[in-house]
Design a protein that fits this description.
- Pathway: Glycan metabolism; L-arabinan degradation.
- It holds the Pfam family Glyco_hydro_43.
- The protein has one domain: Glycosyl hydrolase domain, family 43 (Tachylectin-2, Chain A).
- It has 1 helix and 27 strands.
- It is 1% helix and 44% strand.
- The protein has 339 residues and is mainly β.
Length: 339
């Protein structure tokens, strides 16, 4: 499935007439595209033309121990290669230790910024951290302190960061089953300024925002992420003309008050699809990048939830997004020009 979009090449024949090589078709793929585990994926395209994906800390059960925010790279969103971890050892500032979940990768000038969650299950004071690097491969240097913790910001279970950049003004959106909130970041991104604004109610976590034709679309996951074959994760959406809401579904219901349209849900092959990113290919098509659990193999041998990364086309119908998946058969992949 390795592929590069063919460049148009002029060939001169003996007759002197030019030939132009046909463009190669998109790659074919079958889910999953990243294994064995790559939960909560966040994706960025770097200056080298390649894609980089960052995932939640997990033990793959291969004797290599825990991967502290594993990094994968791909030329085409289909063929991925593991290249190492964002951290060789977990940041030391989190009192009592923790796991490093739900990273979000973004770019500010020459720096790649990796926002991440630092938390334990049931942690009374989870935090959002920040590490930076000059290269998407790292090495990442941690800030050495949190951007904020739950007790600082007044929002319980402060994990799952997403950063929206609009003309240099950046907003951090986050939350997990205690409301989805937004707050402005200081210019250097290392702390919150102002008061949090609630965007959605306590059913949700894992925010992702994309902008299209005058609307901000807020994708959120609801249900259980990590109960093996019993996982109920489902992706919902609402849209707004303002980043700070209100976000309404197609029936006009507020995500802050029970609203939300389903974008992606379980099927006979996959359960618990969610915690998505959205990537636009070189032909302008949008792709959903997310994790899900295979119904017939829900856990690795070491008991870890089997949450590989999947991709599927994000379709738009009358201004509303929908994913016809999770797909379980061979699909036509994204259109991506050669790096």
């Amino acid at each position: 499935m390795l592929w590069r979009t063919a460049l148009a090449v002029g060939l001169t024949l003996a007759t002197g007439g030019p030939l132009v090589a046909a463009e190669a078709p998109p790659p074919r793929y079958t889910n999953p595209v990243v294994t064995p585990v790559a939960a909560d994926p966040s994706v960025i395209r770097a200056d080298d033309g390649r894609y980089y994906l960052y995932a939640t800390q997990d033990d793959w059960g291969d004797g290599g121990g825990s991967r502290y925010v594993p990094i994968f790279t791909s030329p085409d969103l289909v063929e991925w290669t593991y290249i190492g971890d964002a951290f060789s050892w977990p940041p030391a500032w989190k009192t009592g230790g923790g796991f490093y979940w739900a990273p979000h990768i973004t770019r500010r000038g020459d720096l790649y910024e990796l926002f991440y969650s630092a938390s334990l299950w049931g942690d009374p004071n989870p935090c959002i951290g920040l590490a930076t690097a000059r290269s998407p491969e790292g090495p990442f240097e941690d800030l050495g302190r949190p951007v904020f913790c739950s007790e600082d910001i007044g929002v319980r279970n402060s994990i799952d960061p997403f950063v929206w950049d609009e003309g240099g003004r950046r907003t951090l959106i986050w939350g997990s089953f205690h409301g989805i909130y937004a707050v402005e970041l200081a210019e250097d991104g290392t702390r919150a300024v102002g008061e949090p604004v609630r965007l959605a109610d306590t059913r949700f976590e894992a925010p992702w925002v994309t902008y299209r034709e005058g609307f901000y679309y807020l994708f959120l996951s609801a249900g259980s992420c990590c109960d093996g074959e019993w996982s109920t994760y489902t992706v919902y959406v609402g849209r707004s003309e303002s980043l700070l809401g209100p976000y309404l579904d197609a029936q006009g219901r507020d995500l802050n008050a029970g609203g939300g349209d389903i974008v992606l849900a379980a099927n006979d092959t996959w359960v618990g699809p969610g915690h998505n990113a959205v990537v636009t290919d070189d032909a302008g098509a949008d792709w959903f990048v997310y994790h899900a659990i295979p119904r017939d193999a829900p856990r690795l041998r070491n008991g870890v939830n089997n949450r590989p990364t999947l991709i599927d086309r994000l379709e738009w119908r009358d201004g509303w997004p929908l994913v016809a998946g999770p797909s379980a058969t061979e699909q036509e992949g994204p259109v991506v020009s050669a790096p």
